[in-house]
Structure formats: C-alpha cells, structure tokens
Write a structure and sequence with these properties.
This protein has a single domain, classed as tt1808, chain A (Alpha-Beta Complex). Strands 1, 2, 3, 4, 5, 6, 7 and 8 form an 8-stranded mixed beta sheet that branches. The radius of gyration is 16 Å and the shape is globular. It has 5 helices and 8 strands, in the order H-E-H-H-E-E-E-H-E-E-E-E-H. It has 199 residues and is α+β, with helices and mostly antiparallel strands. Strand 5 and strand 6 form a beta hairpin.
C-alpha cells in the first residue's frame, strides 16, 4: 500500500482518524503581497497550463513556481522537496513519493521537519487527492514524533494548480477546509501558507 492507495474509510479505520469538514480554517488569515516576478510569471503560465490541461503542466507551470517563490520568501526557515521518496512506515502503508513537501528547516539535502504535504489532484478533482494527502500528513506526523522536533500540527494542500484546498491534522483530528481557493486569489493562498510556517 502507498499514500495514493488509501481511502478515507481506510484512514478512519486504520488510524482512528476523525474527519471534520464544516469549518473555514483560514477565514481570518491576512493576504500576502505577491512578488512582481511571480505575478508576471503566472500571468502567462496559468493560461498555458490550463490550455494544455494535464497534471504535469499544472504542476510545472502553476504549483511549482508558487512553491518555489514561497520558499524564497521564507528562506532560510523553509525547504522545498518535489517528487521525493517519503517512506516512513511501509508496514502501515505510510510510504511512497510525495508530490511536494515543505519542511520547517533550512536543510535542503534531506527532510528533517515536514510541516506541509502537497498533493496534485488527480483528474482535476480536488476530492480525489484528499485521502492521499491525509495519509502523507499522518506519515509526516509519525516522522515528526520519531524525530522529537515539536511539530504538533501538520498541514496539507490538495491542488489542481487553479484550485487549492487546505487541510490540517492535529492528533487524530483531520480537518478539511470547507473553502477552495482559486489561483487568482494568490495573496490569500500565500497568506495561508505563511501562517502554516509561522505557527
């Protein structure tokens, strides 16, 4: 089993996960000013990615540039990983490759403090990526507990590139934000990501 194989029912049964879906998790977050270079880059990239309309195009032209700029904004407090193996406990299915992972650490050579797990939605459906994201978040939680690095809450993002949905996991309580954020509301998306690192 791998992160992408989990269903919500699997997570509830195997990890006693309690799901909460009716909250606006980030309603009070202040927007962050979008750097001019990122704004200019996305002006053409979003159109291109949506015209090509593949997961790879959305990942390369929208998601990756946003996360790379985010890392630059919060360097050296944040490291960014893409397509890395994050096998924490294969015996429980907590293994596989992460689409993207943000770590609250300056270390870029290896993962030390995973705090945000990011999953590309499959077939352009946010809902389909939620179980995979939650499974990766549980793995990050286990990793952090083993390392004793004091990160109590792990965050998650499921994105199509044009839409972003945020999650958080504390203990066995997994919350899925009731709101989806469009990439045109990038200041709010960056504000939410900033709040995750600031905690």
């Amino acid at each position: 089993m791998a992160y992408s194989d989990f269903t919500l029912d699997d997570l509830k049964t195997q990890f006693q996960l309690a799901l909460i879906e009716d909250r606006r998790l980030f309603a009070d977050i202040k927007p962050v000013e979008v750097p001019a270079a990122l704004h200019a880059l996305l002006e053409d990239n979003v159109y291109l990615a949506l015209a090509i309309d593949t997961e790879k195009a959305r990942s390369e032209f929208i998601i990756a540039p946003i996360l790379a700029e985010y890392r630059k904004m919060f360097k050296p407090r944040v490291s960014l990983f893409s397509g890395v193996d994050f096998s924490v406990d294969p015996s429980r299915g907590l293994n596989g490759t992460c689409d993207f992972l943000l770590s609250r650490s300056p270390e870029q050579m290896y993962i030390t403090a995973p705090v945000i797990m990011i999953v590309e939605a499959k077939n352009d459906r946010i809902k389909s990526g939620v179980p995979q994201c939650l499974a990766a978040m549980i793995a990050a939680q286990v990793f952090n507990q083993h390392k004793g690095n004091g990160i109590d809450t792990v965050y998650g993002v499921v994105s199509t590139g044009s839409l972003w949905r945020f999650l958080h996991l504390t203990g066995t309580e997994g919350c899925i934000d009731r709101e989806e954020y469009a990439v045109r509301d990038l200041p709010h998306i960056l504000g939410i990501l900033a709040s995750m690192i600031a905690e």
